Predict the structure.
Amino acid sequence: MAGDVLQHALLTALMERPCSGSELAGRFDRSIGYFWQATHQQIYRELARLEAAGWIEGLPQESGRGRKRKYQVLPAGREELERWVGKALAPLPIRDELLVRLRAAAVLGPARFADELERLAAHHREKLATYRKIEAKDFPPGSQPREQRLRHLVLKAGIEFESLRAAFCEEAIAILRTP
């Protein structure tokens, strides 16, 4: 399942722009990696699988030392991505360790959990600030093409998530620290 999503995330990135494995790993870290994590090793492993499946191909290397092999999506890869996008999507179940720990804190008392929530809230505020900087830089006000509006919508989902998580942690901290 996870490899399936990663393969399609990589196909998506390569549809946007052919690039080498190292370029793809860097681009992944700065975009899709915000909501679907993968190590560089996983990315390279999946690139080999995509190529073996006939979904991508390596372009001839440019001459010179240190040139990296670029990949592009083949028609079969595009067809696979279209198939996958159109496939039924299962509702996302909630599986959240934070919620379980809050239930435990309700039974045990606040202990040191408020301090951990402070750290977690700071992490979410930091990520939120990063997303807002990306939004300001990459999505100026005004009319945008559909592709850009969809990319912005994905970023806005991240903004909403981080905003919600930071506010949730802050509310939990207030409750834990109230006698």
